[in-house]
Amino acid sequence: DRGDEWLTVPQAIAYTKISRAKLYQYMSDNTLPWYHLKDSDHRRVKKSDLDKLMVPGDESIASNKDKNRL
After folding, report:
1. What's this model's pTM, rounded to 2 decimal places?
2. 70 residues of the chain, pLDDT tens digit each
């Protein structure tokens, strides 16, 4: 199942198109589970966990943010 593919931090950033800081924030606050290889500090995340971060948009929130940008 490709949804449970392991991604490196750079791959996760490329997949989600979010900043490195935001990805680490999600990992730090336990919003995004992360794993590392035994005896290594190289983090990995599951693609399926990244997909779970994606939620349907709320048009009213999007409209308010757009108005605040003007």
Report:
1. 0.76
2. 565 899 999 999 999 999 999 999 999 999 999 999 899 989 999 999 999 999 998 877 666 666 666 5
Q: How far apart are CA 58 and CA 31, in angstroms?
A: 20
Residues contacting 32, CB < 8 A, separation 6+: 23, 26, 45, 49, 50, 53
